[in-house]
Design a protein that fits this description.
The complex is a heterodimer of chains A (224) and B (244). Helices cover 80% and strands 0% of the residues of chain A. With 224 residues, chain A is an all-alpha fold. The chains are: A mainly alpha (224), B mainly alpha (244).
Amino acid sequence: MTTAKAAAIILAKELRLEFRTRELLTATVIFALVVVVLFSFAFDPTAAESRRYGPGLLWIAFLFAGSLMLNPSFAREQNNETLDALRMAPISSFAILLGKILANFIFMSLAELVLVPIFAVLYNLSLAGIVWRLILVLVLGTLGLTVTGTVFSAISAHARMRELLLPLLVLPLLTPLLIAAVESTASLFAEQPALDRTWLAFLAGFDIVFLTASWLLCDHLLEE
Amino acid sequence: MKARFTITALVALLIFCAGYAALFIAPDEATMHAIQRIFYFHVASWNAMFCAFFVAFYASVAYLVTGKRKWDALGVSGVEVGVTCCTIGLITGPLWARPVWGIWWTWDAKLTSTFILWLLFIAYLLLRGLVEDPEKKASLSAVFAIFASLDIPLVYLANRLWRTQHPQPVIAGGDGSGLDPTMSKVLLLCLFAIFCVMILVLVDRYRLELLRNEAAELRYEIESRGLDATTDYAATPALQKGAQ
């Protein structure tokens, strides 16, 4: 069985599991919403300030929500030792990791799909004319977030205090991604919307580097 | 034992010479005067940090490839020493910045990426503390160390790639860079001295880790035979027979 086919099966399993209860998805959306609302108390969102701080707090909300949402990815495989069962299947460990990364990417994207319009409404920012470019930035940023988060979920699943450990491990590593994503989003929300090519290339580079590192280290990540 | 003592004494002498050179032999800098002398130890501790983290990176890769515990011991030693050197750098930096720039800290590329590096390797140490099984601890921390090492090139190149608050490089930094010859010599001496201190501490920590592993193995061996690891069986003959 090829890696792609195996990853697709794992992806289907994760999606099926999540859409039965949808509890993780709803919790993620609500948590990110709470973060966005709390931030609004920190400053008075006039138009100029929204443009300056808005992108930053949007991405921080995504990072926080992501680092909580990505925890169960491997943590729930510990319960009935289902990770061992997955490992015993005749598929590569990268297929397992890839399936989970793609599943988390879809969940995170669905959450963002709900959150970005709400955010635009709450902070009086217009999405007109920048939708496709914004989607590009969101896709690249979310990919980086989910790759890193899923990999470190695999690492922290073996540790105590994993709910605290995962953000501790992931957030410092994601700062370059945060900076690039915020700069790209900010340049889109500016008076003259423009797509910042350098930061976009940086985001793409970040995604490629971390995906490659995950591929190289996947065997050690999933071993028992 | 004798060799260790001689080497330690030599390194202590070297540090003393380096300190003396930095404070008295190096010429006074044009604009910053005395405070500039912190440069010798600031740069030296960063150099030591890069070397220590490189050792940790190499050891992590070696552990994942070979599976030998000694590489894990070297890895954690490298990270601990590296974090210490990083802390020294992060303290000497603001101490220098305050009189010269008027600010303790700024969020430019160099300082931010260095701070992140510090946080990442502290997270490495926390990860080790939170995983109990020794083999899992070794392989997970090796994987994390490799990911964290991806920030190192960013830290080194930050003030070459971007225009930052932090000064542009003085060594091989392009036009207008370069040091006064005496300053270069003092810098080299200090680099070498701090590097030797770093190696000394690293080797000691490595030996300590190997001893700890050995002690843990012995304790496990004793307890698996149903004996108590803290009782002195040799001193109490009554306990010696049939300890099962």
